[in-house]
Sequence to fold (144 residues):
Amino acid sequence: MNLVISLGTVDEMVTLSRAIPEFESPYDAAEYHKRLKGVFSLVLIARINQHPVGFKAGYALNHAVFYSWMGGVVEGARKKGVAKALAAFQQKTLKEKGYTTVRTKTRAKHQAMLNFLLEDGFVVVKEMKKEKPEEKRIILEKQV
Fold:
């Protein structure tokens, strides 16, 4: 297996996001462009044997904090280190660029993502309760 992480495009992210079942209504290209416009942003694509299998996108909130906004791995490529490789690449790049903190947000119903983040050294900094407990938002941060 040849896993490579590289810079990617919004179109690649949109295509991948449509193949990830946890994304009930994936964002279109316009939303990605809107969020990433005018700030430092990072769009990463993971490829196994040259086939796109995952992505990670985020943008600067300020000079020190980077928001890791969206990401996912297609089902057939899970448990192969793809998410870990994307996160490591992102965090290494951010440290090189002078960022000190990565912030992200997930929902309580995405237990696998929450477990991944905690194992990667993120800590919960805030919870936002919702009417349905499984929709609770969990904000996490990690020092890079």
Remarks:
- The chain has a mean pLDDT of 96.
